[in-house]
Write a structure and sequence with these properties.
By secondary structure, the protein is of the alpha/beta class. It has one domain: Rossmann fold, CATH 3.40.50.300. The chain is built from eight helices and ten strands. α3 crosses α4.
């Protein structure tokens, strides 16, 4: 089953900056995709188009086997596709952690006791047991990120779109998230600059360049620092090679 299908999507911001240019993208059921690219390449914009938060200038959007055109078409999309915003403060608005995490299930029609039970179990799965009564706006940046992820997972979505899910998290917490993601059987797309995280959580990695999604990993040029032994991720060091060549010629 195709969960998300975008064909010929173009989008420009009001200042005239064209970010997406005749973009095609597909996510199949159970597929796990990492998305990389420089800041400003359109990764977050792509997520917002999928969720109907931005309206493309042209192209076709099909989500969960239904074409989506206008605002009302995306209402059930936001119930079934979980979006984690890059900034957790954009996602959290309730007085306490429990209120924030239970909000999604309540909005899906769950009874109050059901929603609270789902919220508590989701928090426990992320190592946040005991956070239920904490005041959300007083949490640390990393804690907010984890609670924001809990709000998404509590809705038991059909697919996930996670924008920089490990930003601000330590290695132990990142490993916990990897463990949680390994235990769920849904398709997802992650935006991240953490190549080790992507290599451990995705089936393949795409890049964004010139407003389009590149699907050939070996063509994706990116700047990064990481250590690996025999990782499966195919990647390019052409930036580094170019700098070395210039140094040799100077």
């Amino acid at each position: 089953m195709t969960l998300i299908l975008l064909e010929g999507i173009s989008f420009s911001y009001p200042d005239g900056r064209e970010v997406l240019k005749d973009l095609d993208f597909r996510l199949e059921e159970g597929e796990r995709i990492g998305l990389i690219g420089p800041n400003g390449s359109g990764k977050t914009t792509l997520f917002h188009v999928i969720m109907g938060l931005l309206t493309p200038d042209s192209g076709r959007i099909e989500i969960l086997r239904r074409e989506r055109r206008v605002e009302k078409d995306f209402r059930d999309v936001r119930q079934k596709i979980g979006l984690l915003f890059q900034d957790a403060d954009d996602q959290l608005f309730s007085p306490t952690v429990l209120d924030d995490v239970a909000f999604g299930p309540l909005n899906q029609g769950k009874r109050t006791d059901e929603a609270r039970a789902i919220a508590c179990e989701t928090l426990r799965s992320l190592g946040l047991e005991g956070f239920e009564g904490r005041v959300t706006h007083k949490l640390s940046g990393g804690e907010k990120k984890l609670v924001a992820l809990a709000t998404v997972l509590a809705m038991k979505p059909d697919a996930l779109l996670l924008d920089e899910p490990t930003t601000g998290l330590d290695t132990e917490t990142t490993d916990r998230i990897i463990e949680v993601l390994a235990g769920i059987d849904i398709g997802y797309v992650f935006i991240s600059h953490n190549m080790d995280f992507l290599a451990r959580t995705t089936h393949r990695i795409h890049g964004m360049e010139n407003g389009r999604v590149l699907i050939e990993e070996e063509r994706i040029v990116h700047t990064h620092v990481h250590a690996h032994d025999h990782g499966r991720l195919v990647h390019s060091h052409r930036d580094a090679e170019a700098r070395a060549t210039r140094s040799d010629n100077d």
